Amino acid sequence: METENVHLLLVEDNQNYLEELIEWLKDFGYQNVETAINVKEAIEKLQNPFDIIISDMRMEKDDSGFTILDQVQSQNLSSVVIILTANDTVTDCRTAFKKGAWDYISKNMKGNVFEILDESIKKAIADFNRWGNVKDKQWIEENIEYLEEQYWGKYIAVINQKVIEAADTQEE
């Protein structure tokens, strides 16, 4: 997957920040960007697949970022979730990672936050290109003993937590 093919959902209630974020992402080459300004709108948009979701942590005076993470988990979506927040705390950061966030980025960090975000997205893309979706990677890790026993010495293709193909070489 290349940068221009990544399907992004931005969840941000600050309109000015959202517009600036969109401009930076377009400058970085992301072409398929959708937005939501609140949790309700984001949940409605999650009926469609997204590769990466970038969500503010605090919207509507609640833990909206956690709501997005919970929704991704409950719908068993393979989307990568990156939390981008000005209200950063160690507790929120730990909770976000426990709930499955790919990254937790403070809007208050030193340096260009948008470049840091771009780097995180690109790492997620590289991981996706190597392992497939996050759920498949987790499934492989959880079932490594079984996979080694059944497919030792073979290359396997896994989609939706199922081995769909096994071959002796990468070219097959």
Count of DSSP strands: 7
Structural class: alpha/beta
Shape designation? globular
> On the 0-100 scale, what is the average pLDDT?
84
CATH domain class name of the largest domain: Alpha Beta
Overall number of domains: 2
Kindly report how far apart the N and C termini lie: 21 Å
β-sheet strand percentage? 15-25%
Element order, helices and strands? EHEHEHEHEHHHEE
- CATH architecture of the largest domain, by name, is 3-Layer(aba) Sandwich
CATH T-level fold name of the largest domain: Rossmann fold
Low-confidence stretches: none
**Largest beta sheet, briefly?**
5 strands, parallel
Q: Bin the helical content.
A: 40-55%
Would you summarize the structure shown here?
By secondary structure, this protein is α/β, with parallel strands linked by helices.
